[in-house]
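tmp note - UPF0225 protein ACFO0D_13480
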Amino acid sequence: MPLPYPSLKPCPCGSGRSYAACCEPAHRGAAPETPEALMRSRYAAYVLQDEAYLLASWHPETRPGTLDLSDGTRYLGLRVYRAQGDEVTFTATLRLPDGHRAQLRERSTFARLDGRWVYVDGVTP
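out:
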C-alpha cells in the first residue's frame, strides 16, 4: 500500500512542482505524456512504496511478477540528465537498508503500449 503524501508538498521526483501538479495525477490513473514524466512518476512511486503503480507502468514482457519495496531502502533524490525520444538518463540517490548511501545511474527505455508510455528496461551507462 502506498505511503500517504500531501498533495501540496513538493513532488518527490524533484521537479520543483507540487505533488498534485506533477506525479499525483499519474498515480491516480492519468497517463504521463512523455517518457520523462513516466520515469519521474515511477521514481515518486518508489519513494511512496506504490508497488501497484510500478507494476502497472512496466511493460508486461519485462515486468517482474512481484515487487517488495519494504526492505528499508529510502529514495533521497533524483537528477535527470537527458530525456530524448524513448530514453531517459538519470541518477537516483538512495540510502540502503544498511545505512550506506548509493547512487543508481540508469538509461531507461520506454515504449508506447495501448496509447500509454510504459517502462521497458534500463542499463547502467
